[in-house]
Amino acid sequence: MIDRRQIVELYARGDAVALVTLVRVEGSSYRRVGARLLIAANGDYAGSISGGCLEAEVIRKARWLTRDGATMQRYSTLFDDTADIPFGLGCGGTVDLLIEPAQTAECAALMGAMQSALEGRPQQVCTALPTLAGRFARTVTPLNVSPSSRTDPFAAAENGNTIREQFLPPQRLFILGAGDDARPMAECPTRWGGRGSAPHSRPQWARPERVPGATVLIEPTSAALVAQVSCRIDPADAVVLMTHSYEQDRDWLRAVLPLEPCYLGLLGARHRSALLVAEAAAMLGWDVARACEGLFAPVGLDLGGDGPEAIALATIAEIQARVEGKLGASRRLTAELVEQQIAAGGASRYLQTQCAL
Question: Nearest CA to 307 among 179, 177, 172?
Fold first, then answer.
């Protein structure tokens, strides 16, 4: 996603000369199909199509290759000990690249689709590849897709001469809390090209400089904040609860669990999380097993390490694996574990002491 943002920004400069798209791979490849490289007149570029072995070659020849329009080019990165190593690396595969002039209506349509998706409007793009059987052409249409639908965004038609792409909005991450450990978490969406939000009811915590890269939302009360943010969360979103307040985490958990986001993580000790899940389930009229199904607690993959940065890394890694459908074993609460933790004591140790007067 970060590639897409950088490509759109470079195209907006107005001096792009060629756009390169990886459309087929045989064997192994550093990048997946759909990867792109935009080249500017002065040699600047955004995106990538390999691990660095092809970029210099393609950048050097792109303008010459597209002198008559869009073209298909095949490159081999197979290692052959009887010849020089092609393009500097033995990646072990063959790739087909679509190289097209940047100053055309077709490229402008694609850039428009990418920009629209970045702004939250999904788009579908169908491209007819330049072959002996047909000419290069492209159509763009709005995409009506479920918010939780994140399937393979790049697919080739049966004849191999047409490719279809889905441009979906960036992954959103809601960080419910703005303590010191939320700061490295908030920086991560910007790095991967997603969008982050850090709602909080305490203005002294939820300041833009405390959570750089995140959209900061502030409401005067916790209840108002929960009501405002809950209506924005959809099934494609990732949510991390880390307010460090037992009551606020319980209120958020009760509000967010029924929304079934693709990822819902709860920061805190296993015992504290178990009590929160049990209380939230009771408030919702759910059994504990149902509440545990939609929750990742303890939050994050077990990567080791300590401190806010390590927690952010482990959590973002778990979210990435979840979104991409690559998640293996995670540390998850179960109804049995919740029962064991509740037997160890109640929630009073996590509640703020208040004067009855």
Answer: 179
